[in-house]
């Protein structure tokens, strides 16, 4: 088993890591910095510029200049070749890239290595799409020789704002379609996890990205993020994060009527039917929440189990939870890493307390983990509540932590109604061996993604996104490109 500690010690030296604007590495205009700390042990990794409105302005200006400059004349085939070179640079430094994520935001290295491979697929998928973009020639009602056609044009300068829970995939899913369509981009990573995104900028620059096409401004959401959302030079905001922040971004964008797409929070139901294959369903249902310590937008945190099998199923999920190995992410044996920050761990603790206070039964977990392997970090034991009612706080609010709320159900109509009774609509999971039930629930569940007898499947070629207060717009698939394109109608009188 590989020991990552020596490599980890060499990756970050507590020094200053500049941000990337107009092809140059720079400090914030204010000279201010903030700290990047390892959530597994609290150690300092690096300091990072605390960018603000002036830095956002410089980055947007650079992105606009690039958008109107030579980048606009790059052919789709040149953009495709760039994306393929970027994928090669990523592969060459793949282990450091993954390790950076583990150090900066805590996801276990085994999981980053396995999950983030799809990022290479993303880069190659969008490389393919770059040369497949096209408009249409459309018949019209005018007499004579009037030609009408559509052009698909880049939306312009894209402002991207991302959360901390998956920096590699989260940033590439914004950058790759921008490069494929010929947009330029200013990206603000989360203040909780900026380091990997800065590494990504370096790899992209080394692959031949022209100046100003990609700009990374590190900083706080309330400062750099808010400035980006309001900036009149930004044509489109692509945002992933909480629903509350998404609402404030949508409000900020109305001033300039810039386009917005939002990938927001969730409170996703997982439904285990009486006829489910229980042996297969238990680990998948458990990991639908516990993966990444529950810090996943699609966490299947409301577990509805058919009453006949409820007690047995919950007992087995709890047993599975107790056997998960928690610890620092650089240990290859670790299955569950730390929570991103003490603040977030406290927030999860308050939800656990609310579950108890409102009368749910704590079956396992619910405690902060300390001592060997957890010292200095923010660890919470995988937690299962039973006896949860639909109106309890833990059944309604997104916890973004390793907490399952289990509830029995009696029939399909009832469970569909209860599963849909949430402001969110990001994902849903169903376990059944009955084909008709699978199809029926897939149709009736109000969610952007429904997984049957599986969970978590995300692919560059398949659209992903939410309905209701989980946001609007899609990432992945050819639908994603629509978010970065405008359609222009061109009329030509050929008489
Ligand atoms: P967050 O909303 O607190 O922050 C997300 C980003 O927005 C960060 O970069 C932050 O700095 C920035 N931000 C904060 N306030 C801002 C403001 N006023 N204006 C502009 N930018 C601002 O979310 P988080 O805690 O980093 O991430 C967790 C949330 O993200 C959860 O709700 C989770 O469900 C959601 N999420 C959704 C998806 C999805 O695809 N639907 C994926 C991952 C995470």
Please describe the topology of this protein:
Elements: H1 5-11, E1 19-21, E2 24-26, E3 33-37, E4 44-49, H2 53-68, H3 76-92, H4 94-105, H5 109-115, H6 117-130, E5 137-138, E6 146-154, E7 157-161, H7 167-181, E8 184-188, H8 195-206, E9 214-216, H9 221-230, E10 236-240, H10 243-254, E11 259-263, E12 269-272, H11 278-290, E13 302-306, H12 307-323, H13 342-357, E14 361-364, E15 368-369, E16 379-380, E17 383-386, H14 393-396, E18 403-409, H15 412-420, E19 427-431, H16 435-444, E20 449-452, E21 471-472, H17 477-482, E22 485-493
Parallel strand pairs: 7-8, 7-10, 8-9, 10-11, 12-13, 12-19, 13-18, 17-18, 19-20
Antiparallel strand pairs: 1-2, 3-4, 5-6, 6-22, 11-21, 14-17, 15-16
Helix pairs in contact: 2-9, 3-6, 3-7, 3-8, 4-8, 6-7, 11-12
Bound molecules: nicotinamide-adenine-dinucleotide.
